[in-house]
Design brief:
This protein has 21 helices and 23 strands. It is an alpha+beta fold and 742 residues long. The strands form 6 sheets. An 8-stranded mixed β-sheet has the order 1-4-3-2-5-8-7-6. Strands 11-21-22-12-23 form a 5-stranded antiparallel β-sheet. Helix 16 runs antiparallel to helix 19. The longest helix has 26 residues.
């Protein structure tokens, strides 16, 4: 009989009701799950789950997968009920059942961050963005209360499994504004809090005691993120701070030490970090035990949100700004300063320098080095390999004052800036088409083995492609006219290719310093290498993997919200990319900030002196950080440049086509038509293995821009620059001045 019952149960389960495709996607993304997460749990392919969520023609799961999928969606629907529009009458907040409190994060969910828990599906390509949030009804009650207006819903990332963290139930941050004399804190997910504080010290107290703001740590031994308070111009005025900084204050990066607000903080026994009260101010009291007391302030009108990376975010109304910063915080981390600072802080948050030891004989735990991290101590300036440091570093102080180091003295791993004149055959074609590698430097960091500790100097070493380091080796014998592609030797026109060994694409003339990925590529091309000397790091690991994965997921999730999914056909990909920013300009800001976090974070690994009376040969502040690691930056750039060159060589070997210009992650080809498909060798919708592939994933390419061959020739003739890098201007064709690459 039980077998019959089991058969009946299976029959019923095979028809388990499922919500619409849009709702399936909403529930998945509300919980911060990727397509891979669901596919792995249900033991199906990623494309299968994507098809279940397709709004055009969704497929239906069958058999046991349908029962499991229905069970997943049912549980998610209980956690994330469909948003109910809130209504307001007079000064009353929305009814309790219409308010969905933002969720926090279980500490054990190491790779996700707190976010609001309501979600609206991304608009379809071409659809209008949702309407802006209405202003909430106001209340004059002095106590701290909360309301939820019918706010514009951000597609949130990740509310993790395991329930909420009640300490941070109101999200990671709030934008504080003043309206009709009432101070309001706009949180993520449309939540609005009344703020009773009448001074900056009182605001800090309120934030820590009542606001329930913050974000759980990203890694087991790490620290929870401090709450972030963003002050609008009206809030700055209310709390006695300047709306904008004077030129002198901008240069100093802070308001004067004698400002009345700083005196108020001192009287209340609050401290400021060494950078003082600037656009990003950290206010704290020394930690007692494991309890931290720290709040970060952000002042957009003091240029805290650089327009190059955050666009017009600083001009947004409070609710919209909270949405932008909240989505970024939930998917990347709570901003800790500029996108560059945040990119660096994310590395440390994912690999904290210390952890608690196992209990000793008395049961007490101690702080110990966290394996896989960079540790808590910076490398001493005089212990750095001279080849790896920038000019002016203390280890170079004995060099003559105006000495210029050449490639045999200095590791020079930088991104490409190369171009060449067009051939006669290329001039007969009509178009110049640029393709751009998505998140190229993030992809270069993925899976890369980098040094974790100090370098060891070795003479005449055997080259080891698995050993991170800097190698002095002569690669001038590598002939690009005959190279190995895979296992086969191929003949190419080496004069039409940039050298993979120099940023300008010039052929090396003798021994030079290279990072491991560059030397390994020479071996891959079929040539023997014999290093003269090297600085190698025996303590190494894939330090940047988690960093890459978090930024990749943030980028892909936000692009999906904008209607650009992974695994689209080339034609659908072009259609999805067309005007994607206009579908939701606020989420487009998040995409820009995520990309800036990648580049800025890597740039910070070799931060230069920033004024402060520095003189060449003296240490500067950044050298005291464990994350001042120019060797890691060099390795990532080396790997990124080599990845691009490998694809260029593969493309040339298969098609006979060569690039006209390369700038960082953009490559320009001459083509008979205006589309990348006019020169990329797709067959039956499939790209050349190992070559360029269209798509949104990091490492894949998108269309950067198309101009005419006549445009390219005219621009070069106008500026009398036959090798002007056209990749710099291919996007919109505007050339304002000749860029010398400096």
């Amino acid at each position: 009989m039980s077998e019959l019952f089991d058969a009946v149960d299976a029959l019923v389960a095979s028809r388990s009701p499922l919500p619409s495709a849009e709702e399936r996607k909403r529930l998945r993304t509300a919980h911060g799950l990727t397509l891979d997460d669901v596919a792995g749990a249900l033991k199906v392919r990623r494309a299968t789950v994507s098809a279940w969520e397709s709004t055009k023609k969704p497929t239906e799961p069958r058999g046991p997968e349908r029962e499991a999928y229905a069970r997943l969606l049912k549980q998610l629907a209980e956690l994330y009920p469909a948003p109910v529009p809130a209504t307001f009458t007079g000064a009353h907040a929305a009814p309790a059942e219409a308010r969905t409190m933002p969720t926090g994060q279980a500490p054990e969910a190491a790779d996700m961050a707190a976010s609001e828990n309501t979600h609206a599906p991304a608009p379809a390509p071409g659809a209008a963005a949702p309407a802006a949030a209405p202003r909430p009804a106001r209340t004059t009650r002095p106590s701290s209360t909360s309301r939820r207006p019918g706010a514009k819903k951000a597609a949130p990332a990740g509310t993790p499994a395991g329930g909420t963290d009640p300490r941070f139930e109101n999200g990671p941050l709030a934008v504080v504004d003043v309206e009709d004399g009432q101070v309001l804190a706009y949180c993520t997910g449309g939540l609005v809090l009344d703020v009773p504080a009448k001074s900056i010290p009182a605001l800090v107290d309120w934030t820590l005691r009542e606001a329930k703001l913050g974000q759980p740590k990203l890694s087991g031994p790490g620290k929870d993120a401090d709450p972030l308070i963003v002050l609008t111009e009206a809030a700055l005025e209310r709390y006695g701070l300047p709306v904008t900084l004077t030129e002198e204050e901008k240069h100093a990066g802070r308001i004067p030490e004698g400002h009345k607000v700083i005196k108020q903080l001192a009287r209340a026994e609050w401290k400021l970090t060494k950078r003082g009260f600037g656009p990003w101010a950290r206010i704290y009291r020394p930690a007692t035990g494991s309890e931290r007391a720290c709040v970060q302030l952000c002042m957009p009108s003091w240029n805290a949100l650089d327009t190059r990376h955050w666009g017009e975010a600083g001009q947004l109304p409070p609710a919209e700004l909270a949405r932008v910063l909240g989505v970024y915080a939930s998917r990347v981390m709570t901003p800790r300063g500029s996108t560059a600072v945040t990119g660096l802080e994310l590395m440390t948050a994912l690999h904290p320098p210390t952890r608690a030891s196992e209990p000793d004989a008395t049961g007490k735990r101690h702080s110990e080095h966290n394996p896989g991290s960079l540790g808590k101590d910076a490398i001493a300036p005089m212990n750095w390999p001279p080849c790896e440091v920038p000019d002016g570093h203390p280890v170079l102080k004995d060099l003559p004052r105006f000495h210029v180091r050449g490639p045999g003295e200095k590791l020079f791993e930088e991104a490409y800036d190369w171009a060449r004149p067009m051939t006669d055959a290329e001039c007969t074609l009509r178009h110049l088409v640029g393709i751009d590698v998505n998140m190229a430097f993030a992809a270069g960091a993925n899976g890369l083995n980098v040094g974790l500790g100090e370098a060891t100097h070795v003479k005449a070493p055997a080259f080891d492609p698995k050993l991170p380091g800097s190698w002095l080796v002569d690669l001038s014998h590598v002939d690009l006219s005959r190279v190995k592609v895979g296992k086969e030797w191929v003949e190419l026109d080496g004069s039409l290719l940039p050298s993979p060994f120099t940023p300008k694409g010039e052929h090396p003339e003798g021994p030079a310093w290279y990072a491991t990925p560059t030397v390994a590529y020479a071996v891959e091309l079929g040539y023997e290498v014999r290093p003269i000397e090297a600085w190698v790091r025996y303590d190494n690991g894939r330090y940047l993997d988690g960093w890459y994965q978090r930024l990749r997921d943030a980028y892909l999730a936000t692009m999906a919200d904008l209607g650009v999914d992974a695994d689209l056909s080339p034609e659908d990909f072009f259609a999805a990319m067309d005007g994607y920013k206009a579908r939701d300009p606020e989420l487009a800001i998040v995409v820009s900030a995520v990309k800036a976090t990648v580049k800025g974070g890597l740039g910070k690994l070799r931060e230069r002196p920033r004024g402060e009376g520095w003189r060449p040969g003296e240490p500067w502040r950044a050298l005291s950080r464990p994350t001042w690691r120019p060797d890691i930056r060099a390795a990532v750039i080396s790997r990124t440049r080599i990845n691009l060159h490998r694809k260029i060589v593969k493309h040339a070997a298969f098609t006979g086509q060569y690039p006209v210009a390369v700038l960082s992650d953009c490559v320009v080809y001459a083509a008979g038509g205006p589309s990348p498909l006019d020169f990329l060798p797709y067959r039956d919708g499939k790209p050349l293995p190992g070559g360029f592939k269209l798509g949104i994933n990091p490492g894949l390419v998108k269309h950067e821009g198309t101009q005419s061959v006549l445009w390219g020739e005219e621009v070069r003739e106008r500026f009398n620059a036959p090798q002007l890098n056209l990749a710099r201007y291919i996007k919109d064709g505007t050339v304002t001045d000749v860029d010398n690459g400096e």
